[in-house]
Please model this.
Amino acid sequence: MPHNKTSPKGLELESNYELYGNSDAVIERAQEPICFPDLNLDLVIKSITASKQEYNLQLLYWTPLHTAETVCYRQQVFQDLENNLLMAHIKQFAQSMSVMRRYSAMIEKLDYEYHKKDWFLETAIMYCTALSTLASCLEGIPLKSAALATFRIYLADYCKSSAFQSLTADSQKTKQALAEIKYCVIIESGKFKVKRYEDEADYSIEVENTFSKFKQSDAQNYLTHIPVMTGTSHIEAKILEFVVKLFPEPFALLDGFCTEHNQFLDKTICAFDREIQFYIADQDFIAHLKQQGLPFCYPNIGIS
Model:
């Protein structure tokens, strides 16, 4: 399963990148301040973070800031995110990362080895696509905040790194090799066998063509939609076992990919994915207030 790892060798931006400001402000407070319920701030924070439960953001709201510089540092990020295009790109990235985490959690619940490995491959592909897309989208967007500008540089360098390039190339190569597998399942009374596809006729097309002449108009569809399940039955697993024996090379690629890239997540990218939610949640809450006709402004903070 994917785990966090340090950045690829040669990237030195990790220690310089901070989305919250002063490092002492990043030490999150684990307990709600006793004054919050009296001021109804607990209800405000609950409303802001309601749709972001997976990120545990309330800890950040419980953590006090100690310098005006940190407040201004964060305000610059908020102001950058007023750019609707930038916000849309970051939300798309965050959505992809969220789906990737759900894939990872699902993998832990699967029973069959190659079913797990195939979903691991899909997780890696989604990760690569999300990062490459975000890096490309950030290129032409003006940024004033030091936090997002520094992250943009980090992300661009990370996407050019040999580790990320290898992950991207290997995942696509493995995916393509698996996609080229073609096989037939021959079902007989009480049993089945699996063989390589050898240009046999597709009888489903022939049957459809035979009965197409009786078709008068589009009939009402009475089929009930059944959700696609991610699990594998024992019969499907047995078919897959036979397919692996028929096509050992693509599955050897899959084995190698899972071994080589078993810890592909970059910890700075994962930190950004969580930390940016603090700003997104606030901006979404402020947008809701503005829709109700309420004014909003950033306070001027004096730095002595």
